[in-house]
TrEMBL record:
It comes from Agrococcus baldri. Residues 6-122 form the RCK N-terminal domain. GO terms for biological process: potassium ion transport. Residues 138-220 form the RCK C-terminal domain. This is Potassium transporter.
Amino acid sequence: TSIGSATSVAVIGLGRFGTALALELMAHGTEVLGIDDDADAVQGLNGQLTGVVAGDATRPELIEQLGLADFDRVVVAIGSDVTASILVTSQLLRVGVPQVWAKAVDERHALILDQLGVSHVVRPEADMGRRVAHMVRGALEDFIEIEPGYAAVRLEVPAGLSAVPLRELGLQAKHGVGIGAVKRDGAWVLANPETRFEAGDTVLVHGLTPKVEAFAVLMA
Ligand code: ADP
């Protein structure tokens, strides 16, 4: 398989985060080149990714050999070894990879990656912790903050909610939330002004985070 085109993604570091990310990309049809300096980590994914390579990604020669400069998107999923994360990331930026995604383990690590010029810094533990906090607060099934301050949640419609069309419920005026979609009998459909809730429906609610949370509490 030829790999290294603009449509492929290289994932450096095949720990828990990198592995989950790489497998999810594969599951959705993206070619993935996985790199890790731990032979066992690489061996474990052999055959599940488009390509796997065992090697130390801090070595400029490896980055060159693998043609990582030709990838549009590279993910640095090395966390605990902050030095390695920084060395790899700076090499990738130096060879001109346009989109570098890097995982940070803490605030200081995130700041350095940011200062290096990484376009996408992700903090899986911190982000997930915040997300779960919102889920716990509102007994929500799912909570995604699109960016700080704006959220989308999945809620079950309580029994007894009046069966008038959305247009008449006035959720936006009264509660400051919008309904994006409704899941009924296992299928999501986009909501429209004529949509009527039924008991057992799941709805996708979006809006400013505090509005969405307040609405979720009301619906609980
Ligand atoms: P997680 O918490 O997602 O498991 P870790 O930071 O513990 O993440 O794992 C990172 C992975 O990156 C490990 O599999 C490790 O072997 C790999 N790794 C660390 N340093 C390098 C390096 N210089 N080159 C390639 N892979 C590396």
